[in-house]
Amino acid sequence: MELVVAVGLIVFKVALLIAILLLLPLPLTWLERKIAGHMQQRMGPMRVGWHGLLQPVADGVKLLTKEDHIPAEADRFLFKLAPILALAPPFVVFVAVPFGESVSVLGTEITLYVSNMNVALLFVFAVIGIEVYGVIFGGWAANSKYAVLGSLRTCAQMISYEIPMGFAVIGVVMLAQSMSLLDIVRAQANVWNIVYQPVGFFVFFVAGLAESQRIPFDLAEAEGDLGAGFHTEYSGIRFAFFMVSEYAIMLLTSVLAVILFFGGWNGVLVPLPPLVWFVLKVAFFVYVFIWFRFTFPRYRYDQLMAIGWKVLLPLSMANIIITGVAFL
Amino acid sequence: MSRALDRIGTWIGWAFFADLANGLALTFGYMFSKSVTMQYPDKEKWLPYSRYRGHHFLKRDEEGEIKCVACELCARICPCYCIEVIPYEDEKGNRRPAKFEIDMARCLFCGLCEDACPADAIALGQQYEFSSFSSRDLVIGRDDLLGKPGKAMTGGGVVAARLNTEQDVLVETSEPQGYNWWRNIRRT
Ligand code: SF4
Ligand code: SF4
Hints:
The complex is a heterodimer. By secondary structure, chain A is mainly alpha-helical.
């Protein structure tokens, strides 16, 4: 009986997580278009539903009913595999991400995470690294020059930004003395890591922008020069996969930023339920992502490389050394 | 001295991403300013000015006689060949159009027909909402053209989109210069 309940609980949590992650892109696209509109003194979607609230549903239906086109010269197997490879890792990663301590429902304590791995941080970075294969395969398999260029850029960008990102979080791991995301949040109960690790946060955030391929680092799909980059040839539901994956990664980066540097569900001053604090902080970061997108131009390719190797990498190294010295 | 200070200030600003912060502040400010969108078919529409070139109309003189003398000058000058005029002689011995057809689907609203007309009989009026699902419905005959609304008397105002402004409705606009497009646009 115990076992059944435990397994049922995990299945329920995973199902809930998947449902939330699949549905969240809908309001997020709406928000993104609304924010974009108002930043440009437009209104954004207005016609489907109240203030265009049903617009994402309409878009979704359109995407699902569109022809699923595969180019004649494409590598069909890889072409079909790529969207799945891009979509699955962001979902898998959330297994290791805690959203709070626990809530008691009907007298039983239910933890707000699927699993508390002691190497959660490593797991997150390892799994999210797989996502780039989706992008690379997608660009390669489509057999189109824009797509290949897009995925080549992604390749180089991922390699140069994973490293500073990994280094940036080492400072956090040193402070918490643990790689478990749960322990990292618990270690920030009094003081958030951002106080000790401003440079680490800066490096992490910039690298996170690059990882989730958002402006100013969205070279992989630079609309201006590459058509749509690696997903130029994708349409219909496979394109929707890439979209959902992009939003899931944006969400993941925000969640990680909150957990690693902004105290997770620990609140300040205002006593709110921990989960509310968590959601508010994540929402703030998601907003910042969107805000950046409609403020900044895209970096040139060589600038991107220069920032990655000449600025972020030394900064993250220095951060580790200084944290280590201070820790001693 | 002050130049050196300026340089230092620029460097400090650069180190703390002052330029990026400026950009972010600007877009943030815009986000909370009023948007300039006119929600045309849903909420409001813009009244055309008197010089607006919309749907053609044929004029009558004081006796109610059709002004057109069927000289076909408009048909000749029209760059799209979309006017067709067939003349006849009426009871008073005047030359008048028996058939006067404009293919609105091909018209480019250049207004040359209005300029060419020696009898001041044709002009481009204020009507612009005449889209149609069939291009055949856009071939407008003489009698329809006689009934089309004329030039706008006032213009530039913004009214509710459902308001019918065609049949001699005069709309007083609060702004005599017309709608101020710059009203909600921040200029710094
Ligand atoms: S407005 Fe120009 S295109 Fe249209 S009927 Fe007159 S002359 Fe022809
Ligand atoms: S409308 Fe004017 S130009 Fe055209 S046929 Fe009549 S009189 Fe001539």
